[in-house]
Amino acid sequence: MNAFEACGDRRACWRDGALTRHRGQRELAVLVLLAAMLLLASPAGAARLPTLGRTHGPFQQGYGRVRPATIFGGGDPTGLVQHVHWVHWGQPETIGRGIADFVWPGQSVAGGSVLSPATIVAYDLGRCGGHLAYRKLSWYFPEYGQRFERQQFMGICGNGYSPYRPPTACGPIAIVSPEGFAESVSAQGLSCPEALGLVANSPAVSYLYSGGRFVYSNLYCGTEGYKPEFSSPPVTFECARGPVSVSFSLDL
To answer: What is the per-residue pLDDT across 162-211, written as a single tens digit (0 to 9) for each?
Structure first.
């Protein structure tokens, strides 16, 4: 008895054979896909993906890794970003979202840190220590009016920081109410006449002794205030939002 006689119906045999081949091809495609996923999940596969720069100091976390959930520079808490979720890893620019310390303008890290959502951008994809890596990193706080500025970065492959841009010195100005006198007014992102006008009409004198945070003219402002046990006059203030920053000092 031949194969067709065993089957009994030639058309049914051909139909069953075609279905069998289709199933086999589909199963093969699934196996190939699973193998590719396993390769990417393996150390060998991960090695093919770019890392977040490289480790460049003690006590660091995340640097030199692929899609790290935690980034820490090894110093104060402002260098820590946690619970990071990345998109577009492996593309020329990858974006992560996590939680980090926003330091309120005019206040110290200890007294002015606020845990806030942060957006992280890693870019400048290239060779780093013999492997592919993102070589520049920046993070910002959209909730506080900040945005990504490509020219403001931290080099994470031994290439330092972006060039420092000093503020413009604008001089002193009298404050209207409560009355006071601001010295050493400096500004970024505003002209000196704009910065001096902003300081002149600010409520800064009200915070001279107590310290605190306030929002004025759509800027986040703050000061540590006068603390005889920790500081001496003059008392420094800062108002900032995104690329705009104005700092000044008040004497007692």
So the answer is: 888 899 999 999 999 999 999 999 999 999 999 999 999 999 999 999 99
CA distances from 207 to 162, 178, 179, 217, 230 (A): 34, 10, 12, 16, 16
* Interacting residues of 94 by C-beta distance below 8 A, sequence separation 6+: 86, 87, 88, 121, 122, 123, 134
Report the candidate in 146, 149, 147 with the shortest Cα–Cα distance to residue 136: 149
Bridge partners of residue 97, in order along the sequence: 85, 119
Q: What are phi and psi of 246, to 5 degrees?
A: -130, 125
Alpha-carbon gap, residue 33 to 223, rounded angstroms: 57
pTM (2 d.p.): 0.76
Question: How many angstroms separate the CA atoms of 182 and 250, rounded?
Answer: 5
Nearest to 120 by CA among 134, 105, 109, 108: 134
Instruction: Give the C-alpha separation, 152 to 146, whole Å.
Output: 12
